[in-house]
Structure formats: C-alpha cells, structure tokens
C-alpha cells in the first residue's frame, strides 16, 4: 500500500494531539486510582504484589506520555535554512551509519547532478536519521538501507521541480492498519521507551514547511520505501533570502 502525508494530519498535528495525550494520561491515572482503592482492602500478599506491579507499569506509562508532550511543546531552535547541494547530502548520508547498529549498512546513491534544495542541514540530518532508525528497527537481524536522491521534473503532475530523497529497507514492512496511521503523532508499534511515535510526524513537518511532502510505500514482509520530496531551489537565490548561503554541516 501507499500512504502520503497529505490528509487530516497536517503540520499542526502535534499540537492537536495534546488533548488526546492528556486524555490518555487521565485514563492511566484512573487505573492507578483504582489500584490504590483495591490495595486498601487487599490482605493477600501475592495479590497486592500484582496490583502494585500494574500500578508501577501505569506510572511508567504516564511518565512516558508526559515526556512526549514536553518534547513536543519544547520550543525548537529556529530553522536556519540554506541551499543544500548533492555533495553535502552525500557527505551527510555517509555519516548516518555511525548512529545506527553495527550490523546495519547505509548505501548512499546521490545523483551527481542533483539540484539544490532548501533545508536546515541539522533538521535534514535528523529527518534522515529518523527514517534510517525506523528502517534499522524493521531489520532486527541487520541489513542494508539505501539512501538515494534524484531530480524529479514534476512528480504526480506537480507544477514544480523537486529533489526526491528515498530511504529504502527490506525489513518487516507495515500492515495496512499501521501504514495508515504511521504519520499520526504518538502512534507507535514499538515498546514504551524505544518508540515515541514522533519520528514520522517530524519528518512530515520538515518536508511540508518547505513546500515538500513525504510518502510511504510499504508491504508486509517485503520492506518499506519512504519518499521525501523537497522543492528545487536555484543556486542564485533571491536577494535578501538565505537561499544560496551554504551552511556548514556538523553531525552531532
Ligand atoms: P516510532 O519510530 O517512534 O515508533 P515513527 O513516527 O517514526 O515513530 O513511526 C511510527 C510507526 O511506523 C513505527 O512504530 C512503525 O510501526 C512504523 N514504521 C515506520 N517506519 C517503518 C519502517 N521503515 N518499517 C516498518 N515499520 C515502520
């Protein structure tokens, strides 16, 4: 199946999710409250232990939920966009494997004549890293990720020219019901603590803020392909705009 970032989940989706997270937190607090009332009149030690275990789990869940909210609400440093060109993207892609498990390799295939595009290099790096982490998570026994970039004249009939960056894995893929929710903030299939469900929404926001888009194609058991489209920017740039300024990229 294919799923795209266009739809009800727009750029403000993280803020929109806050009431739902608060709702979740209240539900978990209700569980804890119920557990406490049960404990009060519980004489059996084994039973008390089970209740306390459930309540500890619930406390951890609330802690995770509130951490997610804080992360989403934290003011981010302002984006500093600049012209990103093929060689910079290639250098960046070449450092991605350092942040991934040792049994994961990253093949970078950046078209030598790649057009320039506008992005904050730091945000671009984290967007790519998010996608590669997801790919690595889908290949628990290790494997290869391809990060490729090419020029696209007019994807799906669009009037503009785009640079397309794809991240491909041949991991476990997503069933339809996961794919259709993949861009929903806080949606995760990962264990609490290892997934926040904010990776793809962040990538989506990164693309859409620059007039781009992100699409996912995935097949259960076959793998996943994420397509990131960013509008072409000409090196000349308009006077007074940051376009055309090259910004030093330092992986962190
Ligand atoms: P997180 O990685 O923290 O769970 P994301 O928003 O990045 O949050 O991803 C949401 C969900 O989409 C993941 O939990 C996973 O189920 C699914 N997913 C994302 N990328 C991939 C991939 N490359 N292969 C398989 N499933 C994926």
UniProtKB/TrEMBL annotation:
GO molecular function per UniProt: phosphorelay sensor kinase activity
Keywords annotated in UniProt: Kinase, Phosphoprotein, Transferase
Catalytic reaction annotation: ATP + protein L-histidine = ADP + protein N-phospho-L-histidine
EC number: 2.7.13.3
Ranges where the Histidine kinase domain occurs: 20-234
UniProt KW 4Fe-4S keyword: no
Name of the molecule in the record: histidine kinase
Species annotation: Bradyrhizobium macuxiense
Lineage: Bacteria, Pseudomonadati, Pseudomonadota, Alphaproteobacteria, Hyphomicrobiales
């Amino acid at each position: 199946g294919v799923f795209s970032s266009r739809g009800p989940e727009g750029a403000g989706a993280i803020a929109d999710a806050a009431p739902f997270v608060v709702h979740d937190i209240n539900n978990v607090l209700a569980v804890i409250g119920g557990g406490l009332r049960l404990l009060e009149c519980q004489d059996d030690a084994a039973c008390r232990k089970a209740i306390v275990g459930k309540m500890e789990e619930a406390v951890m869940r609330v802690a995770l939920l509130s951490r997610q909210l804080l992360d989403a609400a934290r003011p981010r440093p302002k984006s500093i966009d600049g012209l990103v060109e093929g060689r910079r993207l290639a250098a960046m892609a070449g450092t991605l494997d350092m942040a991934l498990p040792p049994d994961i390799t990253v093949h970078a295939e950046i078209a030598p004549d790649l057009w320039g595009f506008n992005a904050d290099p730091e945000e671009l790096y984290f967007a790519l890293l998010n996608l590669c982490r997801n790919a690595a998570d889908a290949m628990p026994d290790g494997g290869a990720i391809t990060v490729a970039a090419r020029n696209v004249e007019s994807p799906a009939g669009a009037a503009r020219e785009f640079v397309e960056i794809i991240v491909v894995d041949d991991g476990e893929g997503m069933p339809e019901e996961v794919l259709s929710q993949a861009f929903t903030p806080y949606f995760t299939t990962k264990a609490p603590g290892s997934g926040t469900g904010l990776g793809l929404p962040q990538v989506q926001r990164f693309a859409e803020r620059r007039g781009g888009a992100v699409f996912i194609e995935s097949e259960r058991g076959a793998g996943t392909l994420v397509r990131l489209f960013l509008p072409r920017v000409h090196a000349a740039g308009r006077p007074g705009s940051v376009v055309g300024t090259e910004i030093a990229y330092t992986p962190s």
